[in-house]
Amino acid sequence: VWVVQGDKEYLIPYIADVVQEVDVSGRRIQITPLEGMFDE
After folding, report:
1. Which domain of life is it from (predicted)?
2. pLDDT (tens place) for every residue of the chain, 40 residues total
């Protein structure tokens, strides 16, 4: 699980269904969120 902090804190599961691409040098990840992951 990755913890992403900004205005809120999000927990991103590090599984193939969610994490599509990791760019270490660019410090970016591309994800496909699970249903309800970012619901307020």
Report:
1. Bacteria
2. 999 998 999 999 999 999 999 999 999 999 999 999 887 6
Helix then strand count (H, E) for the chain reads 0, 4
Q: Are 34 and 19 spatial neighbours (Cβ–Cβ below 8 Å)?
A: no
User: Diameter of the chain by CA atoms?
Assistant: 31
Tokens 């599509």 — which residue? 20
Structure-block tokens of residue 28: 């970016």
Q: What are phi and psi of 12, to 5 degrees?
A: -110, 115
Whether residue 2 contacts residue 14, with contact meaning beta carbons closer than 8 Å, is answered with yes
Element (H, E) at 14: none
